[in-house]
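Dear Dr. H.,

I hope your travels went smoothly. While you were away I took the liberty of generating a structure for the chain from your last submission, since the lab meeting agenda had it listed for discussion. I wanted you to have the full record in hand beforehand rather than looking at slides cold. The sequence, exactly as received, is reproduced here:
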Amino acid sequence: MIALPVVFGIIAWLLGKNYIPRLILVVLSSVLNLLFAISLYLSKGFYVTFPFASHGLDIAFTTDKFPAMFLTFTAAGFLLVSLYSVVFLKGKNYAGRFMFYLYISIAMINGALMSDNLGVMLFFWEGLLCTLFAILLINNMQNPKTAVKALVLSGTADLMLMLGIIITAYQAGTPYISQMQKLPVSGISGFGFAFMMLGAVGKAGSMPFHSWIPNAAEDAPAPFLAAFPGMLEKFLGIYLAVRIVTDIYDLQPGSGMSIAVMILGTLTIIVGVAMALIQKDMKRLLAYHAVSQTGYMLLGVGVALAVLGDPLAMAAFGQTAMEGGLFHIINHAMYKGLLFLAVGAVIYRTGVWSLNKMGGLGHNMKWTMIFFLIGALAIAGIPPFNGFASKLMIYESVFAFNPALSIIAMVVSILTLASFMKVFHSMFMGPQLPEYAEVKEVPKLMIAGMVILTIFVIGFGLVPDLVVNNLIARRLMPLLIMVHISPRSLEADYDRRSYHRIRILESAHLGRRHGHGTSLRLADLALRGIRLRQRNRTDETLPLRKRRA
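The corresponding predicted structure, in token form, is as follows:
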């Protein structure tokens, strides 16, 4: 999943303007990438290392159900975006270069998701920054301001991630995530946590690293918006944020760091929609809404972080908050991808993206109008679309923690609806303008991509419980169960073991409520691990009675 996309990208570049061969290549390669991801999702996972340097510094790749879930999401998104890109860029001189960079990007993302070594993950992470910079330079070599701005802002976030990884690896004594004892969020380790989280949310498009996205919306081809700020980078950023708090750091309930994540999410929601409301450029408007939606994800995850390690609060609303945040990532990729593709279809036929110059396109582009309306209702959280399901989970869980934050999130959704109704009316309603009398609907392959996304937008909204319970919660439960087993609890006095048993079994019961048959078995294995660890202790200060237990 790393080497093959690179090879396919080189071939796509060499094909030049040959449309049909490139289309065949994209279909076969993107479907193959998706099949590989699904096979990993259905498998038991793997762990493989390649010798790289002395002192045990090997290139290590691993995957279990959680990263495999994100691999599947990114592969599905890549399939739709790549097919749309081939048609959208038909006849363009830069089509080969764009597809090459897009394939390199998916290779970098796959590598980052599968990396167990934080240093290796950083390599792929930085590789994605390079492809982002290269795509933004396409047709902008004489005016590279946007590309440079993206490089500076995203590069700053990546530099923070690098510093965080260095501190984390030093404090943990190993760069391998699977070998780390969870670190406390205090002292030097606290800086490591803060830097890594800033790097992760920066990749997801959160404040304060967001301002390059609207500029990129003006300069980059429309498929870029659907691929990078719309889908792929958000998947990668939120994935790392979850891994940081579940596998690397021992975040305590109500800690300042978790509150900071919630505040950052709330500010991102407000600033994003406030800037979107005043835009007249369609692409910039969608870009600011993409920033705003990142805030909802951070708000949901932030509430879960605030009660992480407290099983009662997790049972009451914490797990719902985490599941809602992750569910919103998936839903956002769908409805925002649909919106970007619909707007791209309008630009493809008209060559215009200023709302002041549009009107009446619904007469000739009925399918595009319908798909845009569905995406607009979904992003505003209107039932029965998928945005309503994930936002409702976030509203309810956040309200249980802090009603004021929940009310802010709901008000912003109302403003989002108002913004998109304005766009819908400006583009599609009203009398047909003379300059657009000959405009036709986009090619069927572009319509097909929007149809697929629409099916998922509606389907995930109609059966959200089925999606959350079987696709998200089942993969999230093992992480949440192990969160209750901190390194300190493993090293604590034997008398505290019953306390941790209660916490683990409460988590298992929480999982069973959601239909996870494996949760009790996972809890039992965790308890056995504690017993084995205690029996192997050699601390002679413990009473004999406790060491024999």
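Two observations you may find useful: The mean pLDDT is 80. The longest strand covers residues 46-50.

With kind regards,
E. W.
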